[in-house]
Structure prediction request, 333 residues.
Amino acid sequence: MTFNPILAPYPAGRPRRLRQSPWIRDLVAENRLHVSDLIWPIFVHDQDKARDAIGSLQGVDRLSIAEAVKEAREAKALGINVIALFPHLNEKIRTADAKAAIDPDGLIVQTCRAIKAAVPDIGLLVDIALDPYTDHGHDGLLINGKIHNDATVEMLVQQSLALTNGGADILAPSDMMDGRIGAIRTALEAAGHQDTMIMSYAAKYASAFYGPYRDAIGVKALKGDKKTYQMDSANTEEALREVAIDISEGADMVMVKPGLPYLDIVQRVTDTFKVPTFVYQVSGEYAMIKAAVEKGYMDHDRGVMETLLAFKRAGASGILTYFAKHVAELLKA
Ligand code: PBG
Prediction:
């Protein structure tokens, strides 16, 4: 922190002069939210219906592939550069070995192909993890009741190659297994995919704020918790080590998740590493704002914009948020 000692004392110095009207406040604003800061996560399902509401995420629907293409086109027209894709699969497809995750013709692979064909200039970010594909809802393979790190990494590599072949631009491993960034990067290089980008969920915490997401992807009852792989919310230094490891293994960009409860982590990561750092305003954060608005405790748009600006202030290069499309519309207005 630098502090400028040249401050005129009152009454020469009156900080309120710079707050007296919108135009001067705008002129001196230190941070600004731009539509290009936004990444929009959407959910795609394998059902016949075009859309299916997600109870815990008001205003967010699971979409058919055709509907996802439509939304991608609208998002791009609003100036959104990247959408993030998450699957909701029929229960019958979810297995202990998560084999649907590596299907070269899986739901998200098909979605990537369809969107790339229709909206070639939108970036596609895909989640690399097994939780939508396992019957138990964990991000990794359970062997004798424990998450098996290295067997999981082998699956994540295959999943990464399948999605890259389908047209994904950015792989976003959200699984928190050790060594996965290096393994994925090595496999990409070997397969000639030198341009595929990796945004690692590097500092991802075991959080109570993921509840509505699990509803969205259809995880019914997660056995146990994710604390053996996701980070303990008590820790900061560990986040810096995780980020350092992922950068050294070949991540191009990193992510901190959740968002608002971890702004300190966003700030420390951006200050320390100076690499593009993204923050995920997760489902529980979204749901909390919606609930407060419903109760009449908060103005929707002001509340949303304030949280997004907070991420920018903390140094984030961009934000994954379910509000992205709405905010893009607000920014255009
Ligand atoms: C897991 C994953 C999660 C989210 C994105 N990828 C949840 C989890 O780790 O349980 C959370 C997104 C959100 O809550 O909005 N692969």
Summary: The longest strand covers residues 38-45. The chain has a mean pLDDT of 97.
